[in-house]
Design a protein that fits this description.
This protein is α+β, with helices and mostly antiparallel strands and 396 residues long. It is built from 10 helices and 20 strands. The strands form 4 sheets. A 6-stranded mixed beta sheet has the order 6-7-8-3-9-10, sandwiched between helices. The chain has a 5-stranded antiparallel beta sheet with strand order 13-12-11-14-20. The longest helix has 18 residues.
Amino acid sequence: MVNFSEQPVTTSTQSDRPIAPPATAGRLATPATADLGKPYLQIENVQKSFGKFVALRDVYLDVYPGEFLCLLGPSGCGKTTLLRIIAGLEEQTSGRVIQAGKDVSNLPPSKRDFGIVFQSYALFPNLTATQNVAYGLQNAKKPKSEINARVEELIELVGLTGFGHKYPSQMSGGQQQRVALARALALSPGLLLLDEPLSALDAQVRVKLRTEIAQLQKRLGITTVMVTHDQAEALAMADRIVVMDKGYIAQVGTPRSVYQSPSTPFVANFIGVMNFLTGEMLGDDRVRCGNLVLQVAESEVPVGQGVRVAIRPEDIQVLGEEQAAIGGTLNQITTEVQSMEFQGSGYLVALRPDGDSKEILTIDLSIHDTRRLNLSPGSSLKIYLPPDLLRVFPAN
């Protein structure tokens, strides 16, 4: 017996119930969506509890037609629960789900218009690739000629021409995932849901397939919501990223805006690598961090309040000999190399500012720069922290 939550689902919506204008109170501000028109999918104040455990809290989210949206976050943050609520595989405690202007909140999966691809592929082992793709079409009682034409089209679309006769056990993980994707698209759903579809694949296949899926999604123009805990996948594939933390939406934005302008320390630390310095506000654009006084972009944090100053490793600049000779300039720091972690194309170098034994900064350096600077543990290196690239967060 197959667990229903892992069965292939390709369905169609049949609800015609009119919808009142969606509520906006409590909605998280979403940049770069004002010109996208009416949302295709709306999540309105959705909450979900499992006994005393609250998995989702006050979730508001709009997904726009043709958009590729990634739900990103650590294990247990609620992203998969939210995807299952959208699919009708899980019932929300309160709130509603609106798709194409229709309330589908209380509809079963079979009455909703979506295709879904699971992490475990969920292919029928006793059916060939062609038969797996045809499964939903046959259940929908489509004419045989239409089924054959559609299956052939999809097999070619996902790059499996010549593999239609193979069973899942005869195919690689990447090929099986392509079959699962083709099956999800068979009935031309309005919404494609992807539940960590690449996490079971090895690294090289995962990178290749994420590019193929993103290109296919753009070619088809299908509205897509993908769950992932892999920040690289989200940054590479998504039009917008929804960062989730403990059942809340922490930030929504484009990959670039979420990476470059994180709204909280959690977002800053979860996406990419981030350096943090603890300190205290001295003025609108001055922070004391241990023995260092740093100039930062103007902040609204009150003077005297504790702060965390953040900067990406790639944003720290190495100063040359002439620049290093300039004295008394804010944000120029002499450091000692603590360790060097080889990463193939370069090194992640840990630096300790002189006179401050508590703080460690990491910086990305190419192999060429590492050799040119003749760096090794114990070496001295002068760096510059650009004020406009330093982000200041309240300590609490």
